[in-house]
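Reminder to self: C-alpha cells first, then the designed residues, so the page reads top to bottom the way the pipeline ran.
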C-alpha cells in the first residue's frame, strides 16, 4: 500500500490533488472484508456478508500462504468486477497497470496453490517463491520501481515499461503469458468467481498475422482452435494497434502491453466469447440436398445465399473470425442428407483440431429409426443437442420446415419424449407466430433444456409485429427451462446497430442475460457483416450491462446449455 500512498491514489476527493476513486473502492473492499472477518472471529454474531469475509475467516482459522492468497484475492477480484464503471474513468495507462496488478496477484496465488500450473517442471520452487511472508514476491508484485510518485499518469506507457525490473519482464513475457488462460480458469474456480473469466477475450494461443492452424495431437480435444504463430506463442487480450511503437523496444514487453490494452472494457476485453452457433460444410464427404437442388426459400431469405454453398471447415471459420477468435464454439447441423454422418464428421474435426466444442445434430422425430439415431449420437462426445426445423408460414417462401403440424402431431410428440429421455438439449426452430402453438410442448416438458433459436424469429417487423413478438416472447420466457439464442441477427434484422439494437435489448430484458446467448450464424451471416463488425455492434448494445451479465450473454449461458467446460 506504500506505493499507493506515495502516488496519492488514496487521497480523498476533496483533496487539492484528488486520488483515484477506483483504487479507493478497491482498498475499502479489502479493509471492510478484513474488519468484518476479525469481528466475527472475535465473537460478533452473524454470518459472513461476502465471499471475501468468509475466505478471510478461513485464513484466521488456518493461517497458511494459500488461505491468505484466497482471502486477499477473493476480495480483490470481486472488487474488480464490482467497480468496472470507476475503472472506465481512469486513463488508459492507469488501466494498463490495473490489469497488470490483477494478473500478478492471481499468479502469485497460483505459485503457492497450484505450482505446476505456475511453473511447470519448476513447480517445487513455487511455494517458496510465492510465500507472501518472504520478500521474493515483492520483486514482481510491487510497481514502485515502475510508477512515479504522482497520479494520474501521463499517456507515455513506454517510459514506464522501460523502467520495469528485468525479472518483471521475464515473468510477464516468458512465464505468465503462456499460462494466462489456464491461470484465469483456475483462479475463477479457486475463488468461486466464474465471472472472472469474462476479463479475458481469449485463452491460450491466438493467431498472429501469419499463424497456421495446428492439428490436435492428443486424444483430448482443446477447447479452442489452437494456432501457433510464427515467432512464438502468446495469448491475446483484445488489443489495439496504437501500441505498435512498443514493438520496436529491445524488450519483448511490447506484445504483452498490447495484450493488456482494451477497447471498451475497463480491464480487458468485454467477454471471453463462446459462439453458440456456426456451421461446417464438407461437400466431399457429405451430400446436402439444399445445395444439390437450390431452394427458392433460401434465395428469398438472402439473394446471395448460395455464395456459401461450398466447403466451410474449421480453418475457414478460423480465418473468418481472425484474431477475435472465440474461446469455444457450438457447431450446428446444416441440412446434410445423413445427419449421423454429419455428426461423425464434426466429431472428427473436434478430435483432429480441437474445434468445435459442441455440436447440434439433426433429427427427424417422426423417423422409425429415431431411437437408434439418438443412441448413436450419445456415443459421440461432441453431440450436446439436437434439432429439427419447424419454420412454417402462409408465405411458401418462408417455409423452411417440412410440415405445418409437427407441434400437434402425435407421432412427432412421441419422438420428442425420446429426446426428453436423454441428456440432450433441444434447439427449437419456429417463427414467433408459431410460439403459441409451441407452448403446450414447453408446458409438457419442464425438465428438458430447450433453446429457442434466432430470437424467436419475428417475420413481421412493423411496430405491430414488434409488439406481437414481444408479447409472445414474454409468454415463452415464463418457462424457466427455455433459453434464447440470438443467432442470425444480420440475416433477420439487418447488419447495423440501429436495426439490431431494439430487438436485442428487448430480448435481454425479457429473458435476462443469464438466459440469452450470443451466436454468429457463420458462414451465413458472414455474407452480411464481419466478425469484428458483429462484435462491435453487440458490445455497444451490451455496453451498459453489468460485467456479470455480459459474461452470461457472451459465454456463460451457452456453456451451461451445451455443457461446455470453463
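Designed residues (566 positions):
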Amino acid at each position: 500500500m506504500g506505493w499507493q500512498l506515495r502516488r496519492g491514489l488514496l487521497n480523498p476527493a476533496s483533496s487539492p490533488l484528488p486520488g483515484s476513486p477506483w483504487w479507493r473502492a478497491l482498498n475499502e473492499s479489502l479493509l471492510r472484508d478484513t474488519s468484518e472477518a476479525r469481528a466475527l472471529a472475535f465473537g460478533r454474531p452473524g454470518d459472513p456478508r461476502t465471499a471475501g469475509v468468509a475466505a478471510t475467516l478461513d485464513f484466521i482459522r488456518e493461517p497458511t500462504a494459500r488461505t491468505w492468497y484466497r482471502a486477499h484475492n477473493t476480495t480483490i477480484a470481486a472488487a474488480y468486477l464490482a467497480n468496472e464503471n470507476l475503472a472506465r474513468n481512469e486513463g488508459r495507462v492507469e488501466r494498463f497497470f490495473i490489469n497488470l496488478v490483477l494478473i500478478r496477484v492471481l499468479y502469485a496465488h497460483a505459485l503457492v496453490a497450484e505450482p505446476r500450473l505456475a511453473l511447470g517442471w519448476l513447480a517445487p520452487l513455487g511455494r517458496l517463491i510465492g510465500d507472501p511472508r518472504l520478500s521474493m514476491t515483492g520483486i514482481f508484485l510491487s510497481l514502485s520501481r515502475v510508477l512515479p510518485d504522482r497520479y494520474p499518469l501521463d499517456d507515455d506507457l513506454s517510459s514506464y515499461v522501460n523502467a520495469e525490473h528485468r525479472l518483471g519482464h521475464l515473468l510477464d513475457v516468458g512465464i505468465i503469458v503462456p499460462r494466462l488462460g489456464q491461470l484465469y480458469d483456475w483462479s475463477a474456480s479457486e475463488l468461486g468467481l466464474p465471472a472472472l473469466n469474462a476479463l479475458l477475450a481469449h485463452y491460450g494461443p491466438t493467431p498472429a498475422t501469419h499463424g497456421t492452424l495446428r492439428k490436435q495431437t492428443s486424444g483430448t480435444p482443446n477447447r479452442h482452435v489452437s494456432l501457433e504463430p510464427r515467432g512464438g506463442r502468446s495469448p491475446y487480450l483484445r488489443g489495439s494497434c496504437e501500441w505498435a511503437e512498443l514493438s520496436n523496444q529491445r524488450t519483448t514487453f511490447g506484445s504483452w502491453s498490447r495484450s493488456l490494452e482494451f477497447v471498451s472494457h475497463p480491464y480487458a476485453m468485454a467477454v471471453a466469447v463462446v459462439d453458440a452457433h456456426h456451421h461446417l460444410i464438407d461437400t466431399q464427404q457429405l451430400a446436402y440436398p439444399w445445395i444439390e437442388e437450390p431452394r427458392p426459400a433460401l434465395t428469398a431469405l438472402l439473394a446471395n445465399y448460395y455464395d456459401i454453398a461450398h466447403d466451410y471447415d474449421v480453418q475457414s471459420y478460423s480465418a473468418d473470425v481472425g484474431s477475435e477468435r472465440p474461446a469455444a464454439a457450438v457447431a450446428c447441423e446444416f441440412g446434410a442428407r445423413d445427419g449421423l454422418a454429419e455428426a461423425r464428421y464434426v466429431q472428427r474435426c473436434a478430435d483432429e483440431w480441437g474445434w468445435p466444442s459442441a455440436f447440434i445434430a439433426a433429427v427427424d422425430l417422426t423417423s422409425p429409426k429415431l431411437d437408434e439415431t439418438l443412441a448413436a449420437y450419445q456415443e459421440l462426445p461432441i453431440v450436446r443437442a439436437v434439432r429439427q426445423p419447424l419454420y412454417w408460414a402462409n408465405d411458401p417462401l418462408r417455409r423452411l420446415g417440412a410440415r405445418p403440424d409437427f407441434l400437434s402431431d402425435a407421432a412427432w410428440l412421441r419422438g420428442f419424449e425420446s429426446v426428453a429421455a436423454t441428456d440432450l438439449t433441444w434447439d427449437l426452430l419456429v417463427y414467433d407466430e408459431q410460439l403459441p402453438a409451441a407452448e403446450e410442448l414447453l408446458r409438457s416438458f419442464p425438465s428438458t433444456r430447450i433453446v429457442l433459436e434466432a430470437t424467436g424469429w419475428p417475420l413481421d417487423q412493423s411496430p405491430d409485429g414488434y409488439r406481437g413478438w414481444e408479447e409472445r416472447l414474454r409468454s415463452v420466457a415464463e418457462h424457466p427451462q427455455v433459453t434464447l439464442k440470438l443467432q442470425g441477427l444480420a440475416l433477420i434484422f439487418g447488419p447495423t446497430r440501429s436495426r439490431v439494437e431494439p430487438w436485442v435489448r428487448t430480448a435481454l430484458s425479457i429473458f435476462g442475460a443469464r438466459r440469452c446467448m450470443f451466436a454468429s450464424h457463420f458462414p451465413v451471416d458472414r455474407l452480411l457483416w464481419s466478425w469484428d463488425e458483429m462484435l462491435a455492434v453487440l458490445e455497444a448494445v451490451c455496453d451498459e450491462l453489468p460485467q456479470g451479465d455480459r459474461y452470461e450473454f457472451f459465454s456463460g449461458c451457452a456453456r451451461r446449455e451445451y455443457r461446455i467446460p470453463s
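The chain has two domains: 2-200, 274-561.
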